[in-house]
Every structure is written in structure tokens, then in C-alpha cells.
Amino acid sequence: MDITFTPEELQQVEMHKAKYPETKAAIMPVLWMAQKKWGWLSEDVMRYVGELLHLPTAHVKGVASFYTMYFKKPMGNYHIQVCTNISCMLRGGEDIYRHVSNKYGIKHNQSTSDGRISLEEVECMGACGGAPMIAVNEVFYENVDINEVEKVLNSLT
């Protein structure tokens, strides 16, 4: 796999770098760009980001490891996040998580064998007023119940 950004993406990297007084402050948006492009942050991808930002690979790995939004292994084409924090838990979040887990036979941070679906139990998605909530990739669904979640899951193609 070729691990290089296109010229247009490299321009975006430069724009991110220009926003900050220190280059290393651009690490999070550049990691996000890399994850969007390659689906996850492999060792090679993290090394590449380090080279672009003139940072040690260990620093890049440290940032990527600290934040759960960065995937350190391949995830499914549809990454389902289910919030089970207190507001969501009180309104059925744990039941929703169990439902999705049982439907696909996977647990936290696992993927189906065909790589189509991955599941993540998340601590908080910042929408307590819309609890319970799930996200599929970057589409958020609030005030859901198991029936609504099932409709969302069945719509995934």
C-alpha cells in the first residue's frame, strides 16, 4: 500500500501546520486526515505523519494511543459506536450495546470476519439530552430504542 498523501492533501497538511505556532500542534488534524484516507493508523502511517510534521514516531504513537478516536487496527466499513455512559445507560444504552453485539457476534473494538461491521462501546458522546445515542461512522442518532437501532443497522449496505 502506498502511504503518501496526494499533492492536494499535502496542501491541507501545510494549512493545518500554518494554523499553529508550533508544527506539532497540527498532529491531531493530520492524524484524522490519515485515518480518513487509510481507515486506521498503522505503524507505517504514524511514521509517515511523524516525517511530515518532523516529529518522532514515538510522539505520534503517544497521541494516537491516548485518543480513542484514532484506530490502531482496521475497523469495519461501518463502525458502530454505542454510548453506555450514565445518561445513555439509564435510557437503555447497555441494552442497545448488547443487541448490536449479539446481532453481529462481536464485542468492543472487534469487527465481523468480513470487515463490514465493527463495534465500540463508548464512554460519552456528548449528547446526554439525546440519550441514548449511537453513531455509525460519523452519523449520529439520538433518542433511539432497539427498534430504531435495528432499522439503522438494516439500512447499512
Taking the sheet with the most strands, its summary is: 5 strands, mixed
Rg result: 17 Å
Annotation, overall tally of beta strands: 5
**Oligomeric state of the chains?**
single chain
- Regarding CATH, which class of the largest domain? Alpha Beta
Question: What general outline do the C-alpha atoms trace?
Answer: elongated
Give the CATH H-level superfamily of the largest domain. Answer: Glutaredoxin
Give me the side-by-side strand order of the main sheet.
2-3-1-4-5
**Tally of helical runs:** 7
Instruction: Give the CATH architecture of the largest domain.
Output: 3-Layer(aba) Sandwich
* SSE class: alpha+beta
Mean pLDDT: 95
Distance between the termini: 26 Å
CATH topology of the largest domain: Glutaredoxin
Amount of helix: 40-55%
Order of SSEs, N→C?
A: HHHHEHHEEEEH
Number of domains: 2
Which percent band covers the strand fraction? 5-15%
What does this structure look like?
- With 157 residues, this protein is of the alpha+beta class.
- The chain has 2 domains: 60 residues, NADH-quinone oxidoreductase subunit E (Arc Repressor Mutant, subunit A, Orthogonal Bundle), CATH 1.10.10; 78 residues, Glutaredoxin (3-Layer(aba) Sandwich), CATH 3.40.30.
- The protein has 7 helices and 5 strands, in the order H-H-H-H-E-H-H-E-E-E-E-H.
- Helix 2 packs antiparallel against helix 3 and helix 3 packs across helix 4.
- The model has no long low-confidence stretch (mean pLDDT 95).
Quick recap:
46% of the residues lie in helices and 13% in strands.
